[in-house]
Amino acid sequence: MDIIKRFFAGRWGIMSVGAVIGVLAALLQYWGNPANMGICVACFERDLAGALGLHRAEVVQYLRPEIIGFVLGALLSSYLFKEFRPRAGSAPIARFILGIFAMIGALVFLGCPWRAVLRLAGGDGNAILGLAGLATGIGIGAYFLKNGYNLGRAQKTYSSVGWLMPLVMIGFLLLLLFNPQAAGEPKSGVLFFSVKGPGAAHAPLAVSLVAGLVIGVLAQRSRFCTMGAIRDLLLFRQTHLMSGFLALLVFAFAANLVLGQFKPGFSGQPVAHTMQVWNFAGMVLAGLAFALAGGCPGRQLFMAGEGDGDAAVFVCGMLVGAAFAHNFGLASSPAGVGPNGIAAVVIGLAVCLFIGFTMRKTA
Question: In the chain, where are the structural domains located?
Answer without folding.
Answer: 2-358
